[in-house]
Amino acid sequence: MRLTVCSLPRKWKYNQDCNHPQGDTLRYNITGDNLQCVNVEFSPGEVLYSEAGSMLYMSGNVRLETKAKGGVMSGLKRAVTGESFFVTNFHAEGGPGMVGFGGSVPGKIVPLDLRGGKQWLLQKTAFLAAEDDVTLDIAFQKKFGAALFGGEGLILQKVQGEGTVFVAGCGDFIEFNLAPGQVMKVSTANTVAWENSVQYDIQSLGIKTALFGGEGLFVTTLRGPGRIILQSMTMSKLANSLVPFLPDRK
User: Fold this and answer.
1) What is the rounded CA–CA span in Å between residue 20 and residue 23?
2) Nearest residue to 193 via CA among 115, 126, 98
3) 11 to each of 7, 8, 227, how far by Cα in Å?
């Protein structure tokens, strides 16, 4: 079996001037290289929402509304995953509006089209923004070992609904489309998102490899079928690489 590498779903057709699906009702453009932002255009009556603090700029006719989307229980679920209790809703008034969103670390942004009943699981810091028809919920690791050693923790984010969600991560993104039974072994915490059909678990590399190989004791295993998105850098690695350059405050 051959492993298929893909950067975009095959059904999406992109033109030369902008990188949003032709015929999709949501109009957006992702700009930048490793410090990306997504510019979203939307019409009156359409609603976008984002994690608090993700908005970079917006047109003058956009109105903000802070609320606990889905009620108190949904807000508590978001808080458990590390997101804010409240989300920010964006409304365009008097004509088309525009909002720019950016991640919290140097990295990439990818759109996921959830239409047709698709569900994705995300690492707990990956959600950036979405259309109002997208539901952001929590999901629990199915196996205790994956929760304890897999780098993602016990609780993950789950997105579903008839709309588009924007996912942010650290470094560059690498996408694979796994065939049924195909397995990808990934360094701990380098997994950003995967389709609900993908099985997620951990595997030991052995004590010798952990002590002398520098790769850690465990790796994440992802078994197809389904798409997976990986990141070339993690927040912890980025933070550790900056420590030697921080001023000494002693």
Assistant:
1) 9
2) 126
3) 12, 8, 14
Report the C-alpha gap between 9 and 50 in whole angstroms: 23
CATH at 88? 3.60.160.10
Domain residue limits at 62? 13-171
Alpha-carbon distances, residue 222 vs 10, 58, 195, 228 (angstroms) = 21, 38, 10, 8
Average pLDDT, the chain: 78
Tell whether pTM > 0.90. no
Rounded CA separation 170/47 (Å): 27
Per-residue pLDDT tens digits for 168-227: 999 999 999 999 999 999 987 899 999 999 998 877 665 544 444 445 567 889 999 999
Cα Rg of the chain (Å, integer): 19
Distances (CA, A) of 225 to 87, 111, 128, 151: 33, 20, 25, 22
Copy the structure tokens of residue 89.
């809703």
Cα 182 to chain centroid distance, Å, stands at: 22
Which residue has tokens 């927040």? Answer: 235
Q: For residue range 18-56, what is the model confidence (pLDDT) as tens digits? A: 344 434 467 999 999 888 999 999 999 999 999 888 999
Which residue type sits at 136? L
The count of domains in the chain is 1
